[in-house]
TrEMBL record:
This is Succinyldiaminopimelate aminotransferase. It holds the Pfam family Aminotran_1_2. GO terms for biological process: lysine biosynthetic process via diaminopimelate. The keyword Transferase applies. NCBIfam families: DapC_gpp. Its cofactor is pyridoxal 5'-phosphate. Keywords: Aminotransferase, Transferase. Residues 32-393 form the Aminotransferase class I/classII large domain. It comes from Paucimonas lemoignei (Pseudomonas lemoignei). One of its GO terms (molecular function) is succinyldiaminopimelate transaminase activity.
Amino acid sequence: MNPLLEKLQPYPFEKLRKLFADVKPNAAYSPISLGIGEPKHPTPAFIRQSLADSLDGLAAYPATAGSDALRTAIAGWLERRYGLPKLDIASQILPVCGSREALFALAQTVIDPRRGDALVACPNPFYQIYEGAAYLAGAQPYFLNSDPARNFAPDYRSVPADVWERVQLLYLCSPGNPTGAVLTLEDWKELFALSDRYGFVIASDECYSEIYFKDEAPLGGMEAAHKLGREGYPRLISFSSLSKRSNVPGMRSGFVAGDATILKKFLLYRTYHGSAMSPSIQSASIAAWNDEIHVQENRAKYIQKFNEVTPLLAEVLDVALPDAGFYLWAKVDKLASISDVDFAKRLYAEYNVTVLPGSYLAREAHGINPGENRVRMALVAETAECLEAAKRIVEFTRKLAAN
């Protein structure tokens, strides 16, 4: 067996199952889960219909590069959304079966296995695929702790030069999971300068880009590169997905875009990897990328939900409206001294509400675990259910403080 598999840690939800294994939740309350970031809003009817109308595509093998029609739809969306100049659909865009598998697979393409000291830098806390991709590509993860004082951005300037010299791939997540923070143009300028100096590839995970709460949409990596005059998006690959934008996580449909030289090698890898998108899914994806009305309606539901839930929780937890995404990243010891793990376990036992301990989403690095004493709450259900969960959390937290 591949010995690198032994380096993989259990996924956060497996840890959560073990935490709850001996707990019998209070039967007086119906179960509410804020633990998993799985969109629960209904899939738009026109996407469902497009998929149903395209089932003849099941009779054909799909091309790994996807159809011209799909790549044209993706290019059109990128150009409209980020104000980009016309993209070359043949070399700068590649459909993928959800951003998750592509985020993992890119490391297998980018990392040089001859380099025994290779590093993959990633935010901490983080989406665990980044860590697994690093290990299974033969590299080591290097964790960049989020800093609440910097809107949860890491302090890139504190990273020693000898570390950057070993970094071959940098994972970013903007809007961030779990923090909801968005990188600024100045952040991107600093990161591009580091990439130019040390030669590493930037993988920009942007799957939460269409759920935001301010008037201005989150800045994307390719948008930042264009604004800074970086023609051809050197050493930059952006990832996006329909899962959150269009409420179709089961379709497994997304794309990568950016540096044509890297994408040429990535296409070669994927040809052998056997990860082509079904023609039926491609047709439904074209319909989704070409429509913005359903995205605006979806975003409006999240805005209403967060505007109602966040003030309630802020009474008892250290939490604020994020820049974007559908998570609240709450510090739980505002009123009572309690760990994130104990908070999650007792909340589940006493009020039948599931949240994810922040320490499960992070690693101890540079002397701290930046997820400690925080919990991630995914506000993915309908507003009424999220409000009920918030009311229970308020009651639970006040009871903790009183004791």
